[in-house]
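Hi support team,

I submitted a single chain yesterday and got back a structure, but I'm not sure I'm reading the token output correctly. Could someone confirm the output below corresponds to the sequence I sent? I've pasted both exactly as they appear in my results page.

Thanks,
R.
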Amino acid sequence: MSTIRQEDFIQSVADALQFISYYHPLDFVRAVKAAWAREESPAAKDALAQILINSRMSAEGHRPICQDTGMVVAFVRAGMDARFDGGMSVQAMVDEGVRRAYTHPDNPLRASVLADPAGARRNTRDNTPAVVYVELVPGDGVDVRIAAKGGGSENKARFAVLNPSDSIVDWVLEQLPRMGAGWCPPGILGIGIGGSPEKALLMAKEALLDTIDIQELRARGPASRVEELRLELFDKANALGIGAQGLGGLTTVLDVKILDYPTHAASLPVGLIPNCAATRHIHFTLDGSGPARFTPPPLSEWPEVAWDGPAGSRRVNLDTLTRADIAGWRAGDRLLLSGRLLTGRDAAHKKIADLVARGEPLPVDFHGRFIYYVGPVDAVGDEAVGPAGPTTATRMDKFTDLMLGESVGLIGMVGKSERGPEAIASIKAHGGVYCIAVGGAAYLVSKAIKAARVLAFPELGMEAIHEFVVEDMPVTVAVDSRGESVHETGPREWRMKIGRIPLAPAR
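Hi R., thanks for writing in. Yes, this is the structure output for that exact sequence:
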């Protein structure tokens, strides 16, 4: 019988979360490198280059890969012959590890967890509680798999109870285009098939913790129906042409992972959960000999990527920009933004809308300005701000007409992913513009931010309105003032191109 010290368990969780905040799993790095090498879409290749550069910078600087440092999920398999020497529950020990990791003074991680989700939505300030699953298994050790899952990909989870005769492949291919780009492709699709409704979604989440091995599977050939499904879905998902960041391209998914479980004769539950470009998970075991140790991967594993973003971009001064200037921009144009850039996301937009509805003055003059949808990580050392990548723009769609209208007066927005029809119509009507930064390149983006200060709503924490001073911040025009969207034209173009490329048949 082994004795697992409570402190060893807690510190192992804390160390694991710090480790995965700045080190991508190497299988992910290699898969993105391969995707970048074969990508033919210039826009997608540029996005993949930024993801790889950001990943290396985070590994070197020990700062988060993404500003959304995730909600923690832990799968704990405790040996029935093991004992813990403290009085805390497994949930309490995981939460204490999360608390230590997310409040670490040298690398604070963004607190994104809100209590009272249907009411006040109060930030818990330390990212607790985690979501913990505990299973008792034979043995005297403790096996822990832990992930930090960002909200952009979690929000794209899908579930259905299909008829037993329905096609799982058809259902997944129907869902993917509807998921948009808010999950920051390319990533991994986790799929759970069978069991009960909650079991299917749990398997989908757990499947994401496995190693990327689709090319090895293709090389040896499938040995089961699940493996056949993996290959078929991998090929057909990539044939959709969605591409990196939804810009159109050859690679939308890096792997498809599937777990299944026996189910009722009348049912076919299927859960689908994607992993984003900030894939963060790790596996460790405790045997009573001390805390887990995590070995940093060699930096030689990261490719030296040539990124020509600045060379092919137009420089823009935000402080002198007018609607007449942006009228000449076209969807797909690459820009480097310099000057003063406001920030704001869900909670700030709701407060602005409430103030306008009550006829009260706004705390910030938005007229003629750009707003960046971001909730940054706290700064450390001489940083102006911590990693500060974009959040999913579609959540702000319902506020777009208000924000671009005369009462507020914005002329431009920066975020990630596509905009919905309502927002695109508003952008066109007001002669505004929407640009995207690369989701999954938060540390790279933060290097363009030279100063930051809070202007309004400080009680919102990371969701407060900031003013950034940026220098050569790379963005792409996603919706221009005519209402043309790269998230519509890009995938359509590449879907047609890929359709003329024969797919390798699933065996």
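A quick pointer for reading it: The chain has 15 helices and 19 strands. Let us know if anything else looks off.

Best,
Support desk
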